[in-house]
Amino acid sequence: MRKAFLQLHIAVFLAGFTGILGRLITLNEALLVWYRLLITVIVLWVIALLQKNRQHITPASMVKIVGVGFVVALHWVTFYASIKYANVSIALVCFSATGVFTAILEPLIMKRPFNRIELLLGLLVIAGIYCIFRFDPQYKTGIVIGLFSALLASLFPIFNRWLVQEHKPETVTLYQLSGGFLFLTLLLPVYLHFFPTNYWLPNIKDTVWLLVLGLFCTVLAFNLAMNALKKISAFTANLTYNLEPVYGIALAFIIYREDKMLSGNFYIGLLLILLSVVLQTWLVYKSHKRQVASGK
Known about the structure:
The protein is mainly α. It has 13 helices and no strands.
């Protein structure tokens, strides 16, 4: 359990840079994600071919894995769209709503009873988001897109928790992101028709940041998170990912001085979100200690 938490927090720390990179890269959000997936998929396939560690996947399982990849791709596109329409801080805080979405969706999908503590902690995050967004309606479009992105983000850890019980995390990641790349490749002409852009190719600076995004914030972070899901519930993983806004917003304050655009309500909301993460981590730790003491 301790190793799983460490892997998860490293993945979250790496994920904290994605918002900054989303603003640094000047490409349209769909093109940004397409190049991110292109780099990631190439690296993953090279590693898989060299190590020869691919696991056989049945057609039924492949459909499920690729389907989750579609969700991942769409989540990333909407996440970066939220940054473009608002700013890094707004998009990252919207991501915190994944906890409450998971508290509702995981019991429905997995057909288990609702957990009142999970719901209450999720509502604490929603209260934090309300405090943040109440002060400034100018980011309305970015907020709506960001919350939809959070809804999508709550789905794939739920499905991945089941997938990694039966398949190697490396194999799931490989086919999942390959499926996401295929989906976005097919969607891209339609997307760019409705949301046109002036240029399609990244410049030198964009290429460097795309490599950082693909190699470290995707390949490494994704595999660490997938391994952690073997021991940690989807809700705990999503709630821990609420630390992503903490890291990302801190970087946005330092690099872009977004703190000058935010009021005191923002910090109240951020404290509520951080409180929910601390409480959930403490509850999970206590539960684990009781299981160890009882020999289960």
